[in-house]
Amino acid sequence: CGKLYVVATPIGNLGDISYRAVETLKRVDLIAAEDTRHIKALLQHYGINRKVVSLHQHNEERAAADLLEKLRAGLSIALVSDAGTPLVSDPGMPLVQATRDAGIEVSPLPGACALIAALSAAGLPTSRFSFEGFAPRTSSERKSFFKAKADSPDTWIFYESCHRVLASLQDMKEVLPPERRLVIARELTKLHETIVKTTLSEAAALVESDRNMQKGEFVILVEGAPKSDQPVELTSEQERVLGSLLKECP
Ligand code: SAM
Predict the structure, then answer these.
(1) Which residue, among 117, 62, 61, 63, has the nearest Cα to 88 in the 3D structure?
(2) 207 contact partners, CB below 8 Å, separation of at least 6
(3) Ligand 1: does its nearest atom lie under 6 Å from the Cβ of 161?
(4) For ligand 1, what atom is nearest to the CA of residue 88?
(5) Which atom of ligand 1 has the smallest separation from the CA of 193?
(6) Tens digit of pLDDT for each residue in 44-93?
(7) Ligand 1 centroid to 133 CA: how many Å?
């Protein structure tokens, strides 16, 4: 059997790829990529000349079946996405799942990932966090999505498009406390990298007043709810004592 390599590529700065990733991309039989034209330009930069096949959101079930046959026949395949780590808000899940289910080895080549890069530089708590993918596209869905995260004690992170970042921050301001801290991480690793720590009361105005803050790629990180906002969980002993005290109340 062959082997499937899941290879992270840069999220902007072309220097952010590992030696091992370049070596692996140079020697695999086949590279499965989201956008073949985009990836060929990237490969050219590293002097890599391998056969590239397409695996994207709209063909991935069929492409996974084809690639599985090739893995069974002994080929080695690298899976890449347009940027960052495959399967993180990117295609590849059916292929990885099918390969693993078939008992064929799947090996990760770690590297850039926008959410981890943003988290590492945001200055928000990192011991527990949740990644929420892309925020929904409509305002009402976004408000429900933000409300559902309101009591989470952990830092939460989502991806947002430049077309919706302002609307998203405005919606968030309507449903979450104004003092909640958040970090807007934009164009990470690129020329116009910007990482701003602010509060919800100020975030939308900050983005609205600067057109540059409405361009590029965004990760938004929101601090978890403070402990005082968390529902209190009583131990059974505390419940028993509280129960008997309440019985004594007039
Ligand atoms: N697989 C990628 C990863 O590992 O981060 C994410 C792919 S997802 C389709 C693309 C989204 O990731 C963008 O819309 C943006 O929200 C975020 N993103 C990607 N590159 C970024 C960057 N350089 N700076 C900020 N956000 C970025």
Answers:
(1) 117
(2) 165, 166, 169, 184, 213, 214
(3) yes
(4) 1
(5) 24
(6) 999 999 999 999 999 999 999 999 999 999 999 999 999 999 999 999 99
(7) 10
